[in-house]
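pasting input
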Amino acid sequence: MDPKVQKVAEVWERDTAIVEGVDISGPWNRMFGQRVIWDYTPDLIQEIAQLPGAESFAWCYQCGKCVPVCPVDVVGDYGPRKLYRRAQTGINLLESPDLWLCTTCANCLRVCPKQVDMVQIMPAAREQAMLTGRAIPAELQEALENTAKYGNPLGQPARKREAWVKEAGVPVPILHQIQRPVEWLWWVECYPSYHPRGIDASIALARIFHALGLDFAILGREEKCAGDSQRLAGERGLFEMLAEENIRTLSKYEFQHIVVTDPHALNAFRKHYPKLGGQYDVWHYTTLLARELPRLQPLLTRSLPYRVTFHDPCYLGRHNGEYDAPRLLLQALPGVEFVEMLRCRENSYCCGGGGGGMWLDSFAAGHQRRRLSEERVLEAASTGADTLVVCCPYEVSRFEDAVKSTGVEGRLRVRDIAELLAEAMGLIGEGTA
Amino acid sequence: MTIVVVMEQVPDVVEELVIAPSGTDLDRDAVSYVINEYDDHALEEALLLAEATGDEVVAVGIDTTGELDQALYTALAKGARRAIKVTGDFEGAWLSTRAAAQLLVPVIKELDPRLVLTGVQAPDDLDGQLAPTLSALLGWPHASVVISSEIADGVVRARKELWAGITMTLELELPAVLGVQAARQAPRYVPISRVRQVMREASIETREVEPVGDLAPSLMRLRFPAETSQAEMLTGNASEIADRLIELLRARGLL
Amino acid sequence: MSQRITVLVEHLEGQPTDVTFELLGLARRIAKTNGAAVEALLFGETVRHLAQTLPADRVVMVEHPLLRYLAPEATAITLTTLLRTDPPWLVLIPNTSLGMDVAAWVAATLDWPLIAYCEALEQHDGQLVATAQLFGGKILADVKLEDRPTVISALAGTFATDALPPAPPGTIEHRDPPAELAALRTRSVVLERPEAADVDITRAEKIVAVGRGIESKDNLELAEQVAEALGAVLAASRPLVDAGWLPRSRQVGKSGLKVKPKLYFALGISGAPEHLEGMKDAELIIAVNKDPKAPIFSVADYGVVADLFEVAEALLERLEG
């Protein structure tokens, strides 16, 4: 260290110090003068904190509570506290890989005494990086371009969005065909419409709705991605464009409530569509089915000999407060033994897919010891469960890949809660839908 | 100085294509349009050139669909300074390359650029590629299948790809025309919020033109390729398929 | 217009490319039914030696230093000058990187019709019909040839070279280079060949080739393992090379290399026409793709519609186990 650098500017020590009649003269009355901290600048912190929505970045007082609960830190070197500290030491978040590693799972916010809100900071910072022409990971770019072009991140034709309906085996009414009011508009979302394992769950859910006699319909090809994860990945403009189109489409039809498959869509409809003029009564399908349990229970006739554990989706649990509905449904399944993972409910781990992580898989894997999904799957396997139950469409493919890559294949299966319910109702077989 | 990028809308081949009852065109109502992917690369290359030289990039397109604005606004958001839309009575028509070139030539001449870039080919250019056609009509030198370029001392140095990693680097006097196969770097991303901002602040210029006659070759019919799949399809689960493949390779002495 | 079919000879510094003989073969077949003559236009710096090897009724040769590499401007001007003086019935130009620079330029300059991406040229009811591949090979366009000189830009690797008679002792004529060559606006042309590649995929007996379906760079490792277990080399389609995941020397297709291995195992390659051009002559083609409509299945011997990762892993287990 440079010997000229002093820790303190001045030292005061009174020769005689008497406080309330007590003589405290001596080195313990020593005081240190204020020092101007010149070796760290607040500039990079301010560069983030001045962005609308990212103000709380500057509130961090480095207590470090966020680090041990951060799912990214568990497999790497991360945590909001570290981002602040790195900005202090000259690392520009806008140019750092750190910018793309946060999954906006919100576990840090849960414990933060200063309300430093990465769920708002990250999208703002990412948008700023995009607006200032900084490179974004190619896989994310492709997903965003696909969403803008096709209305889904997979780059699938819009017309194919309703193709799965033909395999459903039960009538799945599509609003542009039936042209009548319905009670429930089922917002299927992208992965449940296009991804093979997502389609399995959609078919299961369609059969359950049908068996319950629910008055429902889907939008089919008119539905576009609700856009929440794109928003969190920094594409506010794309989100607004999708939301405006979706709101316009929804305004053409009469329905009473929306039921969504995807917790990210739930989050968008609950928290962000209202600001753009879209006010709806929105339910996650587990919430709806849990409410329908009195009618559902008698239909659960088959005993399922599974030991299951459940992964709370961040955007259903921490973000929208629903922890009980999926558990009520699991406990209603005859024969099923339910075990919790250590990290569950409010402190649930994250699958890595949120906040754009779904489209940053290779990028993130390059900065982590193992994927978040792999960490989670190992935790699930360690409970002795043979089935990892999920209720967010991002998770099935992420966890199934992780099951293969971590070598627990054959010991652990990943299934949507709808698949288990439909199986117990005898609506689908034991394999998939 | 000016660099012109010509951007074409083409049917998206990701979507299912339907042949119209006439048999000589696609069912244009069932088509969704995208910007020709090579034109995106041409735009990127133009922006990279302009960043080095201070030139002004002008994006030019023929609006055959009424949907060109979005692409031009995106070009502006990425860094083009001006965008020009050529309009006329040809909406929904399948413009031949020759006809498109004839419509574009006066607009390009008016802009007096030192370089014109466009995509090396398009999915629908039955009568040949736009870059060499424009070059012929403008009387300017050109090169196609370009994978990098640089402007220096009154010339453009363009590297074109032949095959097997062999390249040809040409020095062309300006003005010149390039058909771009790939930009030096992947086309940049521009967030939609920037595009929307540009839509509020910038405007697209319009050039109304008279349509030219039908210059396309005498198309008899469009058809889908015959199902020539001589492939024997193997079915079953992954293990069964793997077994079958091993068997096949063994039988042919490949294992 | 005479009943003459003219073929532009493509070569690289005096080495003729395969497509030259493919187009001469095509010209001869049409000429036979129509009683036309086949003419080869041979441009270059010193290409005399080549003239003897071309199976044409007449070889017209123009030699000039500026024609050495068949660079766009010089070639197009020379070709246009010859065609204008004595228009043939058909002009066949390869739809390659060199030919693409010339065909549309010549046709537009002469105001002759051009049919690009031609994959078939056949007689139908007494009429010659050209078939062009459009929309990424998803649609074919049949075009009736008009009764006037027409330029055909023909796909490489599509027409047969077999059934070619041995080079006949056709006439060889020299023409003077056009005066315009003195005023070219192309200042210089430099040809660069790649440095010796790590692997020569054109000599490989077995190739495992990967395409977009591999999804991410990380997944290449799996493909590499499969290749290694099969004793094959790893190759790729253009998008992966463009993304920088594999070097250019591994690229199969029109702008990459043409391969003819004993085994071509395609993982996640949909089969754009440009790719098929580079590999369809492989002895055994096995293709794995999620999309049952992937054009790769049109050239494959065996097809698998499945998740390539599952198949690759199952295969690897057996090969390594």
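fyi The longest strand of chain C covers residues 114-124.
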